[in-house]
Amino acid sequence: MALIVQKYGGTSVGSLDRIRNVAARLKKTRDEGNQVVAVVSAMSGVTDGLLKMAHELTSQPSERELDVLVSTGEQQSIALVAMALQDIGVPAASITGRQAGIYTKGSHTRGRIADIDPSMMNAFLAEGKTLVVAGFQGVTPEGMIHTLGRGGSDLTAIAIAAAIKADVCQILTDVDGVYTCDPRIVPNARKLPEISYDEMLEMASSGSKVMQSRSVEFAKKYGVVFEVRSSLNSNPGTLVLEEHPAMENVVIRGISIERSQSRVTVTGIPDEPGMSAAILGALAEAEINLDMIISNIANDGYARHSFTMHSNDLGKAQAALKPVLEKLSSNAKIETESGIAKLSAVGIGMRSHSGVAATMFKALGDAGINIGMISTSEIKIAVTVDERSIEEAARAVHDAFHLDKEPV
Amino acid sequence: MALIVQKYGGTSVGSLDRIRNVAARLKKTRDEGNQVVAVVSAMSGVTDGLLKMAHELTSQPSERELDVLVSTGEQQSIALVAMALQDIGVPAASITGRQAGIYTKGSHTRGRIADIDPSMMNAFLAEGKTLVVAGFQGVTPEGMIHTLGRGGSDLTAIAIAAAIKADVCQILTDVDGVYTCDPRIVPNARKLPEISYDEMLEMASSGSKVMQSRSVEFAKKYGVVFEVRSSLNSNPGTLVLEEHPAMENVVIRGISIERSQSRVTVTGIPDEPGMSAAILGALAEAEINLDMIISNIANDGYARHSFTMHSNDLGKAQAALKPVLEKLSSNAKIETESGIAKLSAVGIGMRSHSGVAATMFKALGDAGINIGMISTSEIKIAVTVDERSIEEAARAVHDAFHLDKEPV
């Protein structure tokens, strides 16, 4: 008998019929001899409807009250899923975030899990109940309702799996698992049987939309092995786990791409201490998430700083930089480029294999694709290319590393 | 500065516009120099919508899960009312039943308030916040969500007023206050400036729909003075309070009527110990609320038991009685009468005034109205009449006691 945590997103519980399907699936897992804890999101559409009301009522709803309002969505779905389970003869109990003992810190609408007191969950499990826990929510130590922000239900599932020492944590979603690349772009992309936490993190932060980084980080920190799999079929998915020696044999695990990027390059800044800090500080204050950051000295002796960001942030970035640059140097100039995309090749095998960058650049060169910026980490090589070439670039790199084939 | 609890029902918060009105009204009370705690129900329609989903999902939703589901309705309205207050510059905080420290006992969907720990409310009040508390809900000592059943938000308001030692508790509703009789039936009915708890209880249990008995009982137990007043205007309403000597000068405070009653009379039962208990026990087991109960010995030496009940329960009562009567006596017979109504005259002055029944019966006799059953308590005389005569009966008794005139 295994103790299994299964997370179902808003689409999976998006109607009463789908709720019945989730219940049937939970029953099946239970009938196979397992104890089951389901973590569910709000029915799709419910959260948006509540937010709409709040914004009709006031232009600036307080985040504390948004949490109180929005957290009702998950509370409704847990009650409904528990009823659907009981209807097919499964003893079940719904558990709110507070009842699950999920204590949070941080600010409203984007809380972080600080601690879990699983005593109520353990008591119900001891009674043989299947639990249905509200994802995305918890309470502060003072008892204020907190939601966990984007990807919060995944985080709840992983944190609960750690707290109740589950054998398996399954993230059930609308994809089959983690692929070597997005199969809509690379048709011969292959589903990975496993991927390490670090690789998953690099994939997440370079555009793979399967999971938010912080859920993966949490799983890594607490050693929670989880599986990303489909909520629509019973195929095995992808296990995400701590790396083991055999994993290093694979040079590149996967490729992720990110579109709609823009580059800002600042030139004409004296190469003096404090200059970079002033520039990056202005962008951070404007809450712009920078992706690649490259600095160098140009031929004219001035420093040259380039950043990439989502194109939506470009205008805000220019506005934030203008006053700072005026103060720093009369020669300062801003140069921008939109319509670029980023391709990242990720794999822990890179650490022990040389020539990875060369293989990748050759593949792109052979395909006639020009490389813009380059940035690397220990287990990732990222390049920017013209957005119109990104799909071709992905296919070329995927082929160059033979990612369509099982590694030997 | 007074500390005021105001309770708003589901209609009062039934749309975003109405929520804005409630916020404006709370602000006005606050601007007059008071501290305010609002207790609100779910937006009208929300609870029914949730129940409908539950019943579509399963024919017998568990009461525990119904509580989890339905309690989200109030949680949504408190967040929205708090946002609306903040939008007009009032510092406000929503408080769920659990946060209000409302601890309950009893069964799910009809919990009773056992205790209140007002520490979070007091802390927010000390910060100068206007509080918006979810009516109708609490938690068990084990942390399970509990709803309080019909009239639960009134009960919440009165219990909170007791716990935070409020100066006033106002139940804002769609009637102006408590009247000497229903003004739709007796056009010259008069709004009462005050009524005692005991009179209010007798009115409630004899058909006046203003408030549930248990809220009045709770107020009486804890000495909470409350006012029933309109949510639509600022007219003074009716104070409900412990009786004081001057109140005894009024013989009859008010008249309430209850329609759709039926009588069941059981005859031919030997006058032996245990017989009444067997009959009443069978009806109690079938969860039939009896109203008047009259027993006597008939001329044939057999006992004769009559009960009144809501006509909806008549069939159920007959079915419950049949097997018992067959066992008790071969002479037992059931006789039923529908289409009757009850008129109750209520007043603590009855205790010290004689001739009240005589005045009432004479008024009915003069109007040519036949009296069926009669039952009395220390402060109430109730009679049944043909349902078609009930309005005329109410007017006749109202006139006989000059209830349209201020007492001197």
Q: Can you characterise this structure?
A:
2 copies of one chain form a homodimer. By secondary structure, chain A is an alpha/beta fold. Chain A has a domain at 3-173: Acetylglutamate kinase-like (Carbamate kinase). In chain A, 34% of the residues lie in helices and 26% in strands. The first copy, chain A, is built from 11 helices and 18 strands. In chain A, the strands form 4 sheets. An 8-stranded mixed β-sheet of chain A has the order 3-6-2-1-9-11-12-10, with helices on both faces. In chain A, strand 4 and strand 5 form a beta hairpin. In chain A, helix 1 crosses helix 3. The interface between A and B is large, with 39 and 39 residues.
Highest CATH level, the class of one domain in chain A: Alpha Beta
Mean pLDDT of chain A: 94
Percent of residues in helices of chain A? 25-40%
CATH architecture of one domain in chain A: 3-Layer(aba) Sandwich
Strand segment count of chain A: 18
Q: Which blocks of ≥5 consecutive residues of chain A have pLDDT under 50?
A: none
CATH fold-level name of one domain in chain A:
Carbamate kinase
Question: Which key phrases capture this entry?
Answer:
homodimer; 408 residues; alpha/beta; Carbamate kinase; six-stranded antiparallel sheet; 34% helix
List the helices and strands and how they pair.
The structure is a homodimer of 408-residue chains.
Chain A: E1 3-8, H1 16-31, E2 35-40, H2 46-57, H3 63-87, E3 92-95, E4 102-105, E5 112-116, H4 119-126, E6 130-134, E7 137-139, E8 145-147, H5 152-163, E9 168-173, E10 194-196, H6 197-205, H7 213-222, E11 226-230, E12 238-241, E13 254-269, H8 275-285, E14 293-297, E15 303-310, H9 314-328, E16 333-346, H10 356-366, E17 374-377, E18 380-386, H11 390-400
Parallel strand pairs in A: 1-2, 1-9, 2-6, 3-6, 9-11, 10-12
Antiparallel strand pairs in A: 4-5, 7-8, 11-12, 13-15, 13-16, 14-15, 16-18, 17-18
Helix pairs in contact in A: 1-3, 2-3, 5-7, 6-7, 8-9, 10-11
